[in-house]
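Handout, page 2. Input:
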Amino acid sequence: MGEIFSPGKLMLTSEYFAIDGALVLAVPTKLGQEFFFDEKNDQKSLIFWKAYHQNKLWLEAVIDYKEWQILDTNIPISAEFIVKTLKNVQQLSNSKLAGTDSYYLKTNLQFPSDFGLGSSSTLMNNLSEWAGINAFQLNTMSLGGSGYDIAVAKEKSAVLYQNKPEIHYKKVTFNPVFKDELIFIHLNQKQDSREAINLYKSKVKSDELIEEFSNLTKEILLCNKLDNFSRLMEIHEQKISHFLNMPTVKDRLFEDCPFFVKSLGAWGGDFVMSAKFRGFKDYFRGKGFNTIFDWDNIINS
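Output:
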């Protein structure tokens, strides 16, 4: 049985504006998604799909890939998404799902599904590595989105990513000298990215504003002092707040926090980033947010 692994991701800059070509800085997480695969020459043309969440079975499906019929499953709506995605794999691949072999495919998501670290992007990349196809193409056909998360999963590294005028990204080292001062707090809910993106898309944006976020990303990448990093993060939050006409997460939940609080990805859920201060664990836990990571606990740098 073969095995592939793709890391999850956290988007540090240019949320929303990534869709329109703003430069993104994103980092890989230690946890991601495993993919195990086996093939049998049994002339049956079946896919036996098993998806685990943190080693607990979540989804089972038996799929006839000649007729693209779900023969058996415990969660029909999720099995239908797997069928749609595997159809796209078949269309893009020269070899997989082309004959009469049966495939035994198993996934294991290592992080809780409400963490928003990239359950879909890690799946798209794992399937693409397995099938020898373009992960960005598969992602566009199956899900959409800016594609920065695919770049992180593919490179297994921090990346600078831009999707316009065409997809362009490069591996970077983002290991700031003050990383031990940074913390990541989960907001106890997963944000619906599509709903948030629809709000963003409904608003008119300028090339100048997109360029401002690209420039902020470049400055943030080069930061070597926490106070400068904090200032840039606050500027970033205020610009998006003004554009979306939404309060920042700090204004909404952490008004008395002595440091910046930066949303990571779609606003309203998933993770935020801040910095350590005296009593920071008691502060966040006192507000009901108990899941707090240090840099080295969550980021694979």
